[in-house]
Amino acid sequence: MMAGTKILRTASAIVLSSTVLAATTLGAQLAVITAVEAAVVSRIEVRGNSRVEAETIRNFTRIQAGQNVSEAEQDEVVRRLFATGLFSDVRVSQSGGTLVVQVDENQIVNQVLFQGNSKIKDEQLMAAVQTQPRGAYSSATAQADVDAISAAYTSIGRSDAVVTVTTQQVGENRVNVIYNIQEGDRTKIASISIVGNNAFSDSRLKQTIALRESGLLSFIQRDDIYDEDRLRTDEETLRRFYFNRGYADFRVVSSVAELDETQNSYFITITVDEGERYTFGNVVIDSTIPGIDSEALYSELETRPGEVYSAKDVEDSLVNLTNSMANAGFAFAQVTPRGDRDFTNRTIAINYVIDQGPRAYVERLEIRGNTKTRDYVIRREFDVSEGDAFNQVLIQRAKQRLEDLKFFEKVSISTAPGAEPDRVIVIVDVVEKATGELSLGGGYTTGGDNAGPVAEVGITERNFLGRGQFIKVSAGFGKDTRNYNLSFTEPYFLGRRLAAGFDVYRSESTSGDYDSVRTGGDVRLAAPITEDLTAQIAYNYKQEEFGDNNGTTYNRFTESQLIDGSGNVFESTCGAPNPNNNIVDPNGNAALAPPYTDSPIINLAICESPYITSSVSYSLIYNTLDNANDPREGFIIQGGQEFAGLGGDANFIKTTGKASYFKLLNEEYDVIGQLSSSGGNVSTLGGDDLRVFDSFFKGQDIVRGFDYKGIGPRQNGVSIGGTNYANASAEATFPLPLISRDYGFRGAVFADAGSLWGSEFEGAPGVVGTDAALRASAGVGLIWASPFGPLRVNYAHPFVKEDFDELQEFSFGFSSRF
């Protein structure tokens, strides 16, 4: 027993001794490890570098001699050096007091090449990629470039484009980076389906959005390119469409675009919940700011009880009230609309509450994303600038103005805190789009001497040199006509909302009763008086030269006298009959001039050549149209006068006016009604007789179914113009049944009535049609919103006319809605 006990104690002593020894060894190891983890660095050794200086790499490490460096700090050095983009591999270790930094440098990019691309130019792709010549090559960056190129192809409708990247060694640690592109076919939009709509048809809703189903003309119009941002924008477009038509509870439940790779086509489904339709209930203004007369502000409201609810009317009312507050000295007044729904009666009562808002000022406007458009072009659309009181309503109005410019794909405005608590930074982010257009148009005119093909080519830039200026150059060619035009507009003349510009034109015609060449131009200035009312003044200059149908152009005869072939002077003013049936040119050469032989009016034209008109004019334009290009609601009324007599030969006053009213007659079927009327008068100034070419020449522009100069006073069958005109027109347009609206075709039915009357030559031999005899016609039309511009075909049957009128029942050409 005693012996066993002794053995156990010995074993225990051995175990205890071993435990102590193990603990001592472990402690020593931990001490060593700790020393390694945070050893003092006395020097940094750089290895593997050839182009990058060792000192530069040491600076990137941010490690100083005498510093204790842990493993975590070594890992941070690795991350920091990788972030420079200069190295493909970095390893950091420590040997005693030496920190060893081993690097493998990236290769230098010699060239960036694109192969297989034809739809997108090299310059555009170069701007999209991050890899650039003379920069460091990074495989991660190159792969990101692949994604960027793929996105560029998706944006032009080629989602199945395949992009790969390869490198080519060229020596001296340099490499060519080659992006290989298989562009593939255009990715189409096979269908756009809208689910859940009852108030409006699919075709009506699809007409409001930007995305279009692929069709025969999609390769020209390019509106069938799917883009997620465009789909999100179309969602907002649908919301506004419904909100402005009474559906305040409308929401887009979902919008899904599915790509069928076998067909290379998208199938888009938009699911909506329309909700109920509301009208406005009671509309009140409640101000908590002393000194504000709420009753005086009701005239600023666009919302009326009983009318269909419209979010746009609420927004316009907010802007009007905010501007009124600012003009009255309440810069920080804040207008908040509060709606109260009555679900039983389906009304929304609006209470505009005016409170004293927080005192906040705009510290600065920060504009981002504009690569072409100058900053000041964007800034001038804001009614607030640095240092002004911050007002959210005015900021949103500026956003709408920027979108209306059509310079940008997307405009977003956000805010950030400024340097002080009462300062706000307004951040404007824009995505630019192409603003230049090349237009090619063609048509065919029928009837009269002008029958034949017509063509027009034009180049338009709406944001010239990024300055927001408009410029257009165009030329038109017909069977017997030539037209050349140049137009330029600066929308913010002298830094104010004054649109200044000029137009220059030249037209040549060898058709009709005589040849003519007209050269002229104008300088104009337009200023907005209100949001809807604009005033314009202009100086106009025009020189007209006339000749016979043989191509001879005649200059003015001495002392305005006619001379016969024998050189005899007739003591009469130009325009007197020519009994010898001839006229002469300035060299005394006789020129037999049928059909002028019995027309003193045409003799007048030739003996007055060249004829100069120098005038000033003004006009007022009242425009409430909902869409300038395709109106459905609103008025446009314009009227003005032209005074000629500032030098030149003309001496008259012309007064003209025109009004058009558009009304959506049926929302579901998109039937649009239009009523129009116009009128004019020209009178002489200074007591002189009115010259024939200062008169109005009218025809199909006021009563369709007649020739260009088909109605009004005539002498021996030749149009001599009239001193007065008036007309009225009624028209309804509608989509063609069984034809997709995406093709842009609409039908029309119309009725016109009007007259052209009055002449200084009333009672002269052979003159007829000086009375105000009514002409009237009715007809049908086909309108096509083509990629080349709006084209229109009309057939009009005149059912009230005079025997001497000239008819043109069928016409084809460019269309204008007002």
TrEMBL record:
Occurrences of domain POTRA (ranges): 39-106, 107-184, 187-275, 360-433
Chief location category: membrane
Residues of the signal peptide: 1-22
InterPro entries reported for this sequence: Bac_surfAg_D15, BamA/TamA_POTRA, D15-like, OM_assembly_BamA, POTRA
A GO term from the CC aspect: cell outer membrane
Superkingdom classification of source: Bacteria
Keywords assigned: Cell outer membrane, Membrane, Repeat, Signal, Transmembrane, Transmembrane beta strand
Entry keyword Hydrolase: no
A Gene Ontology BP annotation from the UniProt entry: Gram-negative-bacterium-type cell outer membrane assembly
Pfam families on file: Omp85, POTRA
Keyword match Nuclease: no
Places the protein is found: Cell outer membrane; Membrane
Entry's family note: Belongs to the BamA family.
NCBIfam families hit by this protein: OM_YaeT
Subunit-structure text: Part of the Bam complex.
Entry function: Part of the outer membrane protein assembly complex, which is involved in assembly and insertion of beta-barrel proteins into the outer membrane.
UniProt name for this protein: Outer membrane protein assembly factor BamA
Species the sequence originates in: Aurantimonas marianensis
Gene it is expressed from: bamA
